[in-house]
């Protein structure tokens, strides 16, 4: 039995939040030779339950042979063979009701050794466990030194008594499931282990234990003020008179902004009634500083020194601060007095190889990719992140909604009122605030996620409101059931719904306009990015930017949580729920990110970058009207260029002369001369804003904003000159057959969880309806009436299809044709929307133009429809080796098309990218109509205007083969390929036009 806690069994008791744990602090870790990292390879042993861990596992010598090696930080289910990752969304991974635990409850004992240097003698020694999932106990040299809960916050223990100079033996016992797991029921992998770093620190016997530095900005005067509270611990000694804390403020270049100032440390503990703690307090105002914002992340440093009565500095620390004010003024959320757009995303700590353990480099890579998509705000769904994350957000400039590690989703109307869970509720929120309060990036505190709304929330809200008056509260379930206008006011200052429809938020904005609602609406989750998704993102923002009270939201979510799995044949794949043998599970609902687990952007990220663009350009009154949507920075860092397309052909380009536009300002700019003069039926002007210099997130020339303006809207776009077209032989292309099926997207229905969709109202039922109608198996001509006339000539064939969609078949995936083509035609040039994949409700980022791409791999973890391009007037499939081209030219309106290596049936049949089988031929689809993608996996389905109603559809095109001209390169010039262009959020505008 484990010493001390073996009998107590605290893991089974929700009221026991910790034993011997020190209070949370904002003071950063000690530096230099006062700190010893224990990260690295540790010995590890797994037991079936905490009750079965023998005392000798944490004491004395390690029994030979029984230990394996693991990395710390790390999650053991992705490191050892005898336990597995387990994915569930709402349901718990085991059946027992709270607070009961399953009898099989894997418990890991971690052991390592470390040397305490002799110069640490006489110091206080602290052991810091960065994050242990779910609960942990620490033994040093066989002595129990403490127990802690909350998998996503650090725990610190005083180990001075147990430690000794020289070699020390450390054991950390981590229990996989605890009574607290019921509050850690976030949608994600259940992992376990020491997923954040472990270290030892030496602190002087009388030292600074905490440093709170609140930097405020008066938006009117522009002056800063600073409130510092430095907490001193006298340890075993009696508090003596004469200690002082000296505080100074300096800019990042080290230049002093406010010279040192001293404050006494109150010592008179016996001065009953008057004594208010050993806390030195200091206030400075009238500071001439530069404000912090996500656009201008200027930081300062507060240095604090503890000076003893003899005048010697006995301890010192420093924290970074940013001067800024966040407040809610009526229906507006303000930063430094200005209303900012929340271009947000939800982010989990996830890595495909290490699970919950992420490094500062991983986090920086996430943030750089986000900034390339113009994201400026992050909700730390659904728990406090690694401390390094907040340092990065301070420095790089992101607004953060910091969320407490509270989600009781499976029991959300139960535990929020359960007194046994009250203490842990409070601890989780209060410790988060205590840790993160100095960070300027944190602009709201979130009480957690999906935990109902009960007295435990109000207790936590009350604590935070008093402890930190400088930030508003955020909690979604407080408004979910009691209404957006008045619901949950005690627990949330913002109306932060998840997955509302566009009409719902518009209606709320109208109430704001009518004075009937007074809180800002910022969606805590929207535009669920599962698979081929993010339909109508731009439609959301049309309403957000034109309706009072609406300020943006956080897309769900940043990254797929695929975990790398080695298959028996030695290959690897990214796996989702159930693929490790975990049960019960929620399959691929864990893969719903804008980027893959390896941070490969999905095509929808181009739309995110466009919708979140910081500069917009409109065509107004015969000129350009440019608006800077930033609120604190000008546009001087960006250069604008223009490109003119006349009747579908690139005609001229140049740079646009625009003055530096003030934050929030707009300017009118005359049209470039060529554009103003041009006489053509269709004139399209594209304005692109690029960074002038290299930055932390992108090289110089990165496109941050683009708009295409139709100066004249006639629709003509002739293809390349006709040069010797011939009829298409059968081996080049089969005859097109009608096609109404697409490999269902995750938003059409969760194909791997059809039973769940049927039983629990999860996801969209569209797929069930389609399958019931036999769309995936029956030939299309049995579903819709199809007639075709073909007129063949020596130079090709003209196809004219007519489809009648009967009422009962309405809302089809698509209406069009499918044909297979010789796979050597693997490059595509077209005039239409591009260059990246786009769909009718996700194509505003896709400009009309002549684009080029290569046949693309399937971009989604679970294979599904992909690769469509809308608004196309002609398309050439090119064999670059031989130089011949298969040309498809519209004889009527525009069409949508895709050309991939996969038949829709093969995409639909495959459960994972690793199961996907290529077709022998290139599979080409041409559509007269294609359904939008919506976000039906979790949120509104496709809007009516992007669905396929009953009635007549026509598709007419010429198909011809253009052979290579002997001795002359037949194919158009080979522009930079765009197949990867959608990646990187917005780089798609660069050099993709085919001249
Ligand atoms: C929300 C929840 C998220 C995630 C999402 C669906 O209800 O807050 O954690 O489960 O739905 O992917
Ligand atoms: Mg949940």
From TrEMBL:
Domain Beta galactosidase small chain/: from-to ranges: 710-960
Tell me which SMART domains the record gives: Bgal_small_N
- Domain of life where this protein originates: Bacteria
Q: Name one GO molecular function term.
A: carbohydrate binding
- From the UniProt entry, list the residue stretches annotated as the region Disordered: 968-995
Sections of the chain in a coiled coil: none
Cross-referenced PROSITE patterns, in alphabetical order? GLYCOSYL_HYDROL_F2_1
Protein name stated in the entry: Beta-galactosidase
Species in which this protein is naturally found: Streptomyces coelicolor (strain ATCC BAA-471 / A3(2) / M145)
